[in-house]
Amino acid sequence: MKQTTVLEFSHVSEDIQNNRVLSDISFKIHSGERWTIVGPNGSGKTTILKIINGYLRPSEGKVTVLGGVLGDTSLPEMRKKSGFVSSYLDNLLVSDDNVLDVVVSGRYGATRLWGVPPLGDVRKGRKILRELGCIGFEGRMLSELSQGERQKVLIGRSLMVDPSLLTFDEPCAPLDLGSRESFLKGIETIAEDRRELAMIYVTHRIDEIPACFTKALLLHKGTTLAQGDIEKVITSKNLSACYGIKVEVKRWRGRLYPLVI
Ligand SMILES: Nc1ncnc2c1ncn2[C@@H]1O[C@H](COP(=O)(O)OP(=O)(O)O)[C@@H](O)[C@H]1O
Ligand SMILES: [Mg+2]
What we know:
This protein has about 260 residues and is an alpha/beta fold. It has one domain (about 5-260): P-loop containing nucleotide triphosphate hydrolases (Rossmann fold, 3-Layer(aba) Sandwich), CATH 3.40.50. About 30% of the residues lie in helices and about 30% in strands. It has helices spanning about 45-50, 75-80, 85-90, 100-105, 120-130, 145-160, 175-195, 230-235, 235-245, and strands at about 5-15, 20-30, 35-40, 60-65, 70, 80-85, 165-170, 200-205, 215-220, 225-230, 245-250, 255-260. It binds adenosine-5'-diphosphate and magnesium ion (MG). Adenosine-5'-diphosphate (ADP) binds near residues 43, 46 and 47.
């Protein structure tokens, strides 16, 4: 596979209200790589995603998304390359819109449709919903869906623009075990079907990282504790240091689980 650089953070720091929230963060993500960003609450994970998706400007350093430097490239252009799945976006959706419309609206970077979309977009929306295992509820209203189903609709929405990068911010936080596993299966399917798609999955819980994520960035108070191959980064030693308690990391069928010891 040809390795294109999808995203590069170069010595990025972020100050919010005179607090250093991120300090000298550097990493590079190539096409087809799946990265997880892990760290305790307040360690700066969401701040990184906000910078990537153009909601925050870095105070220092440089961020490049697909060859375009953040700040020089227009935001609408950027957002066509990068999709964002989070509960923040979920809250912006209108509950009595139907599922297919919400997915198709992603094509226009909007949260709802204001006119009749071209047939090609509708077909594409249906195909994406099928891929995510959401067949049969395209005509349903968002308010009729479970949280897990809504989260899948958000993924579908972000796939409408064929992004090169897809980012997730704690997508499983509101989900119970069953809907969590069904949602994670959706991510695994996307990963299999779209080999070139780079993904970033942010979480403070290592047991929900899908098995297809093989790279990790471990954050601690806005600094990088470790980065690289997941098995070298999410180790018992690193996790214990990061969370301040003794944990042992166990691997089971490609997923990681923390045992408190
Ligand atoms: N709008 C804001 N105003 C003040 N402080 C903020 C704001 N957003 C984030 N922070 C601070 O930045 C730090 C990192 O936050 P965040 O990136 O949301 O962490 P995480 O997603 O890892 O939980 C935290 O200490 C948080 O309190
Ligand atoms: Mg967060």
